[in-house]
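Moderator note: this is an archived Q&A kept for reference. The question asked for a predicted structure of one protein chain; the sequence and the answer are reproduced below.
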Amino acid sequence: MSFAAPPDITYLGHSTFLMHTSDGIRILLDPWLKNNPSCPSQYKSAEMLGKIDILLITHMHSDNFSKS
């Protein structure tokens, strides 16, 4: 993974971020999508996010592990 250029970071509400590195790696941090009132509608489901290469969980809340 290279950080020759800064990663593109999209805030998805609460503690959720989607990052794209300059070499195409997609990183999802602390996913809370469906019931997150701050999450943009185009990211409300995992299917809408597309392929995620790395999933990072920083804290143990049940909303980070829900399939819905």
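Archived answer notes: Strands lie at 8-11, 17-20, 26-29, 54-56.
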